Records
---
Amino acid sequence: EILPDYEEALDGLEKYSHIFIISIFHKTPPEYSSLLKVRPRRLLRLGLKEEDLPTLGVFSTDSPVRPNPIGLTLVRLFRREGRVLHVEGLDLFDGTPVIDIKPYRPDYRAENYSYPDWVKLDARSSI
C-alpha cells in the first residue's frame, strides 16, 4: 500500500504486468554496511554447509548486507486497487520502506548474459 499523497503517481501502472520495487533494507544492522565479502546463504536450503559456500564480493550477490542497503525486486503486478498493489514475488518484510516503483519494460531484457555456477544451482532449486 502506498501513502495517500502518492496515489496519483500510480496512475497507469496497472497497464504493466511486472514492476520493480526499490526499497531500504531497514532490518540490516548498520555495522554490516562495512562488509564487502559475503556468502550466498540462500544455498544453505539446498543442503550445502556454510563452509562450502563461496565467499564473494557483495556487489556480485543479491545479499541484503550491502554498503548501501537498497533493495531491488522484480515482481508480477496482478492488479491495482486504489493505493494497493497486488503483486507476486515480493521478498521483503512487512513494513519495509519502499522508496520507488518503476515499470518493467521489454527493452530492459538482457540477451547473451552469463552468470556463475552457484547462481545456476540456486535457480534450479526454485523451479
---
Amino acid sequence: MLRLLALLSAGAMCCYPQAPDSLCRLAALTDEEWQLLEGGNVVSKALKPNHERELAVAGVARVRASRECFLERFRDIESFKKSPSVRQIGKLSAPSDAWDLAGLSLDPQDVEALRDCDIGSCKVKVPVRVIQRLACEPEGSARDYSARANSIFREELLTYLQSYRFQGDRALIRYRDKDGPLSLAEQFHSLLSGWSELNELAPEFSNLLARGSPPALENVEEFLYWSKEAFGLKPVISVTHVIIYQLPDRAWIASKQIYASHYFDASLAITLVVDDPADLSGHSIYLAYLNRSRIDLLGGILGGLRRSVVRGRLVGGMSRNLQQTVTKLESSCPTQTTSRGGLCGPVLARPSPQR
C-alpha cells in the first residue's frame, strides 16, 4: 500500500493496456508521455539522480523494425554509433591485441597534459603505469613525445583490458588523477545497487552485472569497444563493455563504461528493446535508452549550476541521437504492415508477454 501511494504521489504513470509495464516503470513514463510516444514522437527526459554527482536521463521511441534487426545493427557498433560526435571507434577482438587499438590516438591537448602529470595531479585520467613510464622518458621533440605518449597509452590500455577480460571487476581501474584513488569498481557497484527500477524489473540481469565476472549463459553475449567522442570541452576516450541478455519478448543491453579519460567516474547505460505486443508480425518494437553517470564536475559549490547545464545538454542530445537511431533503423530494417488498435480500441496482443 505504501509503495502504491508513493507511485501515485510521484505522478500518474502510464497505464494503457498495451503499454509494457517494464518500459513505463524503467523510464518513469506518464500517460501524457505515452500518448506522445504512440503519436510517433521521441520522448526524452531527465530522471531523478541517486547521488550528488549523478546524472540520469532516459529516451524512449517506438520503432518500425524487428528486435532481431535492431540487435544485428547494434552488434555492428562501429556503424551503429557513427555520427559527427564520434571521432574514432573500434570494436575489440577476443582476445584483444595491439591491432584493436591501432586507430586510437590521444587528443593533442591530452598529450600536452601528460607532460605535467603526477600521480594524484593530472588533467587526464590514464592508467598509473602511463604516468610512471612517461616520467622516465628522455626529453625529445614534441613529435617524438607525442608518438611515445600514444604508444605507451595504447600499450597500457591494452594490458588493462586484457586483465579485465580475465579478472572482471577485480581488475577495474583506480583513477589517480586527483588526490586519493577513486575505485571504478566501487563507483559502478554503488551506481548499480541504487538503480532500484532495474533491480526490480530485471533481477537476473542486474545480478549478472553485479557479479562483475565474464558471463557464461546461453542467452548472454558480450563485446568490448573503444571510442573517442566529443563531450564538453574535451574529447573523451572511453572503453565500454556491452552485455546483451535476451528473453523471449525482449532484450536487455548493458553498456558498462570500464574506462574514461575525462569527466566520468562511472557510467552505466541500459537499453531495453521490447516487442510491441500490439504487432503480431514482430516488426515493431519499443526502444528505451537510459543512462546513469557519475560526473566528477558535479561536486563542490558550482555543482548545482553545472548539473543544470549538463543535464539540459544530455536530454537534448538524447532526443537527437534517439531520433537518428529511429531513422536509421526504419530505413534499413525490413518492415511489414502492423495491426494496431487505437489507445481506446482493441489490441491484438502477443500471448503471455513478460511484464
---
Amino acid sequence: MNRFAAVCCLALIPSGAWSQTVSDAALAECQADGKAFTSVKECLPETELALQMLTAVASPELYGDAGAAIVSACAEVNEMSPQRWACVRNAISDAVELLEMVGSADKIADARFKGVSDPAILEKLKVKEDAVQATFGDHMWGGTMFYKLK
C-alpha cells in the first residue's frame, strides 16, 4: 500500500470522541429547529450530556423523586435540554450551599431544595458529569462551554 493510501485509511478511523453514539433524543432535539448540519454537530455533545445528566439526577442512585421535582421545575422554564441541565445544576449547587449556611436540612423549607442538598450526592453527580463529558473529549469545549459543577 502506498503512503498516500495508508494516510487516507488512517484518516477514516474515527477518534474515540467521534465514535461516541448519541441518543435519538439528542439528535432529534438538535435537529428540531432546522439547524444547519454544522450546528447540529456542535449541539449534540452538550445535548447528550444534558439528557444523560437529567436522567441521572432523577435516578434512585442520586436524588430520585427530589431530583425529578427539580428537573420538572426547570423544564417548565427551559425548553432545551442543555438549559434545563444548567438550571438543575445551579439549583443543586445552591441547595448544597444553602445547607452549608443553615447547618441542617430540617431548616430548609422548600422540599425541592431540601431533597437535593446532600453534598455527598453532589460529589457523585460531579463524577458522573465528568465521566459523560470525557466520552466526548475535546468536543465538549466548543462554542457552548459547559462549566463543571462547583
---
Amino acid sequence: MPAEIIAVEPSSPAERAGLRAGDALVAIDGHAVHDVLDYKFYGYEPRVTVETLRGDEAHSCVIRKREGEDLGLTFASYLIDEQKGCCNRCVFCFIDQLPPGMRRTLYFKDDDARLSFLMGNYISMTNLSDEDAARIARMRVSPLNISVHTTNPELRTRMLGNPNGGASLRHLYYFAQHGIAMQCQIVVCPGYNDGDELRRTLRELSVLYPAVRGVAVVPVGLTRFRERLPHLEPVDQDGARGIIAVIDEARAANEQTHGAPICFAADELYLKAGLPIPAPEYYGEYAQLENGVGLMSLFESELRCALAMEEKIRIAPFAVATGRGAADFMRRMIDEIAKRCDNEVQYEVFAVRNDFFGEGVNVAGLVTGGDIIAQLRGKITAKRLLVPRVMLRHGETVFLDDVSISDMEQALGVTVIPVEIDGGMFLDAVLERQE
C-alpha cells in the first residue's frame, strides 16, 4: 500500500525533485516500500528512481544525492506501517506489573525487530518468521538487541508464555551464520533461569561469538502489583552473589577461548550483592549501558576526567534525589568533588523509597515525582535539587506518575534540575554551568 508523505524536508533531495506533502510513496528502484527498512535500504544509493502517486496520477523521478543521505520524506508513522506488539506472557514482564491508571502508551508492549535496529529496543524473536529473519540478513539489519533469558527451549517457552519461545531460538543461529551482530539480555528469575540454567545459557551464547557481541545479565524487577501473576522470588544478596559467580566463571572461560569476556553483570547485581562496582576494564566498550551495565563505572570515570581539568572550585549548597540503590554511590562521588573545593561543600543526598512501585524497586529510573515530593517535603535546605533525567519520560518534563517538574518545584520550594547520567554533566550541574 502506498505510504502517504505528510512532509518534505526543505532543501532535501526529495524537495529538489519536486515531491511534496500529500504525495504517496510507492516504490524505490522498483522495490515496493512497505516500511522504514525498505525506505532506508532501497533509498541508500546516490541515484534512485522514486515512484509516487499524486492523487490518482502516477509519477516517477530520478533523485541524485549523497550515498546514505536521507531522501527527506516524513510519513504519518516513523515505521511507515504499524508497530509490532508483543505476543508473549513473560513471567517477569514489567509492564504486566504496572498499576492501573497510568498513560495508555506505557502499557503497549513492543516486540519489533525494526525498532531493535533503529532504536535499540530488545526483541524476543517469537513473532519473527523465517521470511522476516531472511529479510534482516539480506538488508544487513545489524546490530540487533535480543532478549534471550535462556537457551533451554522448554524453559524459554515456559518463561515467555509463548509456544514459539523455544523454537524462535533458531533465529539466533541463523543471524550468527549471516553475520548479524547481536547484543543479548538475560533477566534472571530465581528458580527459573539461574544456577546451572544460567551456566548453560552463557555457555551456549558464547559459542556464537563474535556475532553475539555481549550478554547482559540483569536481576528481575518486581513491583507490588503482581496480583494474578506467577509467583517470583526477588534476587537477594546471596542470589546476586551466586549470579555474579556464574558470570565470572563464564567470563574466565570466554577469555581463554575467545579472548573476550562476552558476559557482563548489571550494576544492580553488585548493589544487591553488596560488592564493589568493577573497574572500567571489566566493561570494555560499555556496550550494554541501556541494560544498566557499567553506568556507575562510566559515571565515575567521566567525573574524574572532568575534575582533572578543574582548578580550585566553589560550590553552592545543593541536594540530590535518587533511588536507594545509587544513594551511597552518589555520596561517594560528591565527596570526590568536595576534595577539589576551596569551600566546605554543603550537600544532601536523598535516597527515595519507591512507594509507588514497591520497596523492592530501587533503581533511579523508576522513582516517581509523587514519592520525591512526599518524602522530601520540608527536608531540603538547599535551593536546588538535582534529579537523574532518567526519572523523566523521554523528551518530556514529567515523571512516570505525570507529576511535572513545575509541580515539584512548587511543592518543594526548590529549583529542580534534571541531569543526564554522565559524570561530566553532573559536575557542570553541581557547578551551575548547565546551559
